[in-house]
Amino acid sequence: MSSGKPKPGTDPGGESLTLDLGRFEHTQLKIDRFQFKTPSLRNVALTPPYMHDGSIPTLKEVVQFYNRAEGNSELLPLHLDEGEVDALVAFLHSLTGDQITE
Ligand code: HEM
Q1: Fewest beta carbons within 10 Å, which of 6, 24, 55, 98?
Q2: Rounded CA separation 42/94 (Å)
Q3: Hey, is 46 helix, strand or coil?
Q4: Whose CA is nearest to atom 33 of ligand 1?
Q5: Alpha carbon of 38 to ligand 1 centroid (Å)
Q6: Dihedral, CA of residue 89, residue 102, residue 36 and residue 65, to nearest 10
Q7: What pTM does this model have?
Q8: Nearest-angstrom CA–CA distance, 35 and 23
């Protein structure tokens, strides 16, 4: 969707994301519509599902989401090939340590 109010069940983050207005829900400021915290990626392999609503089950699907950037007016497609997608997923796994304490 390029402009206007998203349909219920969609938002600028992608079709699978729920209609959550993000920071706007707290501040009621129009500028905060669809603003979400950019999360740390430390130990990200241990914390599926991903995004604010848990709508993306795996890291590979997150990378594919960024790679396609469909239905999102804020992102440009990355045009990564399958090997580059896998390399980026491997990088994300490298951000997870092997000495995590409970
Ligand atoms: C290829 C580059 C990128 C990769 C691999 C990447 C990776 C990720 C991952 C794995 C998550 C999920 C984190 C979680 O749910 O715990 C995430 C979420 C997020 N990323 Fe990125 N990211 C990239 C580019 C960007 C850029 C350029 C921005 C901002 C300009 C950004 C902003 C965000 C935000 C705001 C979220 C949270 C979205 C939500 O809660 O729905 N990311 N990213």
Answers
A1: 98
A2: 9
A3: helix
A4: 38
A5: 6
A6: 20
A7: 0.84
A8: 5
